[in-house]
Amino acid sequence: MRRRSLWIAAATVALIATSTLAGPLGCGHHRRGHHGPFGEGGEVDKDHLRHGARWVLRSADPSDEQVDRIVEIAAAALTDLWGLHGEREARHEAVTAAFSGERVDRQALETQREEMLARADEASRRLADALADIGDVLTTEQRAELLEKHARHRGRHRWH
């Protein structure tokens, strides 16, 4: 049961992260404006995060204080993850350079692969920390409600 709860909690945070991070992290042209959580000054738009958190957590009926704490956690994680994303262009240029020479620079490609794996591991750890922090904010009953909702949703959308 503990393992199942951990996975469902991870899925819940992934849903929160997806609703708040997917646009700005996946699509650089959506970094600012109404499509993402960054405002004009490059700061996290906490109103945007608050709206997403309330929508994702609506079945758990969180208090305003809980939502505020979750928004702070998500904003910090988003800022950290955006810093990792910012290195994407440099990695792309390095891979392009390694591939475009007279001979493919296998060592440079391997170096970039290792660096990408390290960044993915760092991002994964940061998301796991945010998941744990959000889990600490919610009550056991609220987490159970989210887990139940996720299980129902997953049951309807599973591949057969």
Keywords:
mainly alpha, elongated, 6 helices
Task: Walk me through what this model shows.
- The structure is a single chain.
- The chain is mainly alpha-helical and 160 residues long.
- It has one domain.
- 75% of the residues lie in helices and 0% in strands.
- About 11% of the residues have low confidence.
Which helices and strands, and how do they pair?
Blueprint: H1 2-26, H2 46-56, H3 64-85, H4 88-100, H5 106-137, H6 140-156
Task: Give the averaged pLDDT, no decimals.
Answer: 79
- C-alpha end-to-end distance: 24 Å
Multimerization status:
single chain
Question: Which regions have little confidence, pLDDT < 50, spanning 5+ residues?
Answer: 18-35
So what's the overall shape?
A: elongated
**What gyration radius follows from the Cα positions, in whole Å?**
18 Å
How many structurally independent domains? 1
Task: Give a short account of the largest sheet.
Answer: none
Beta fraction: under 5%
The total of beta strands comes to: 0
Number of helices: 6
Order of helices and strands: HHHHHH
Task: Name the helicity range.
Answer: over 70%
* Overall SS class: mainly alpha
